[in-house]
Model the fold of this input.
Amino acid sequence: MINDLERIDWASLEHAYGPADDVPGWLLGMASPDAEVRDKAFRDFYNQALHQGSVYTSTVASLPFLFAMADDPATPDRGAVVALLLSVGREVIDAEEIYAVICGPDGAESTIYPDTANLMREHADAFVSYASDPDPRVRKAAIESLGLFLDDAERAVALLRDRLVEESGVAARGLVVRTMADLVLRLPAAAVPARRWFDALADSSATDPDTRLAALVHRARCAPEGIDDRTVPTAIGLLRQITPTPAPEENKEGRDASRPCTCVSEPEPEVDADVPGYIVAAFADLERHGRVHAPTTALLTAFHETLDARLDDRTALLAEQLSSPDPGTRYDAIDMARRLITSWRGDHTRLVRLIGDCLAPRDAYTAAAAAEALGSLAALAEPAREALAAYVTDHRTEHRPDAWASPHPEVRRAHQLAVVALAGLGDERALPSLLTALDTGTDAWRAVNAAGHLPQAASELTPRLIRHLADIDLSRDQPGFGFTSLTTALSRLGDPAAVPALTDALRAAVRHEQWHTAQAALKALALFGTRASSALDLVRPLTEADNVTLRTAAASALWGLERSPGTVVPLLNGLLEHHRNFDAMDLAGRIGPPAAPVLPRLRQILAGQVEENRRNEQNGSAVLNDSWTLVHAASALWDIGGDSEADTVLPALRDAWKDNDATAPTVVACLDRMGPAARPALPQIQVALAQSHRYDQRWSGAVASDLDIVHTCRTILTRLHNRSDHRRRRHRRHRRP
Done:
């Protein structure tokens, strides 16, 4: 079969990066006796002919050759070939309904996904054969196919039951059980026999605990309505049976922090001097976050997904994981707990404290993960404050005063992340390490963001931040990372001593036409208000700049520094010619009633967006609705026009909030300013408070944002209820005889 490669015009086919004339070389490489050649061939195929799960004409043309290699006992790595076939099949099965018809590169319609899915189903017998192959690597690669490509539910169930009997390895048996659940979710006809099988496995004391736990979890996946009060306690009991007992010389904290940690030893990476530290750290984080440290992690992750909103059950399970004697189980539980806390509202004190307990001085690798998780929790990390402070202080007193710059990469990272998390709580015990970072320059990029949380230490932090700001060369095309972080930190500290340095930085940015950098400096100066009035002569000319974003930032700074409506309001109409200039709308709102001359333009923007959204909905494209324009325009209208604009503002805010949860912080802030006029939004406010999920979980500040939303909604609700109570009491007094 491999000799037929030349019969195909590969150059007329395509993969992710163009013509596919290199695909035959990859297929030949997969059959090479040289392991390195094979590895590169498989890697190239995955990266280009199956790029991010996309299937191309060259992918489909390769399938007959891949099946031929999988069938040939002489193929050096048949397991990898079968795994590649399974990867292609999984992608097309998952996508066949979503991408039933797609447009190809030439614009012609294509049914490549459903056609390829059918092709894989036609080869179901081949996969059945692979699943019972004498080579365990081939079997392991093929087991999942029994749940994907067979349409005969009875046959698939029987094959999987037989497969479990034949397999003795824990991983293979777990894969069989998971595949049975996948089969049930794909073919409901398999549900009844599979459920009986799950029950027998989960409840049998003769079955090994790994398989019993897998059966319990995947039974729950197939029938979440069957989860009861015994499900999680039973899972915890099985997990305890599975968890390895640590060696006598080990304790819960692992090894000495100066030596490789319990889970993974991370050597000092080889760093190009020209590569900024934050980029090196970002790539290291990408690799680190893909690791799995315990064999039960995938199973428990699936269990948490199935338990979903059963927070008490999930908390109990996570408490067991975080307290496990197995370091790998503890480590992987940290991120599971973080995801639960950042996704669901509730009292998470117990989990936060348990994460804090993972700040073990003798296991820096795990401590770093715990500190990173706590740093993402904003104020919810408060129950772990003392654990963070103790960890940071112990490093400085018992390990070394400059622990921030420790020569041990694991210790250094753990200490830095704990300092950042502690600073995020506004705790001044983080200050000594931040000063070390700013004085030595060691990973100062990480300290800068944390410094802004400690305004009480502005006198010590501000001069150091100013020095770092002065070191940035704004004459370069790419001044580098850090300018915006520095200006933001300085503005948050609020020390007027920073104003001359920010003014100098703005002057340099303008001189070198670094407009994005200039905007950051303008924003920082604006936050100092009239205390930065010394920069007015530099700011005023920028309100006439060609760049509209720069003009807007300059106008906003001018308002902050001078507070003169007569100077700024005339600039607004020109800025609002761009209907999505949200910064200009917000500026108009901050000016308030003196900005009344722009009310007609704001009404025009809002009405135009409402009409556009209406047309989108009529055309079935409501997803295109622009909620942000509604929110910013409506908020500005209220702040300028007040009660006279309520009938226009309130429906726009409510529609935007309904269409896009991400607008919630801006919407509720405006509703709070509206006072009694916000009463018609009371049902939405009550729903927002009652919901279990946090708002907009996709970004790092989601927890803090959600906490602000909850606080503001409660404030509005209390105010409206108190006003209603006052009216009722007054009404009763008036009715007394």
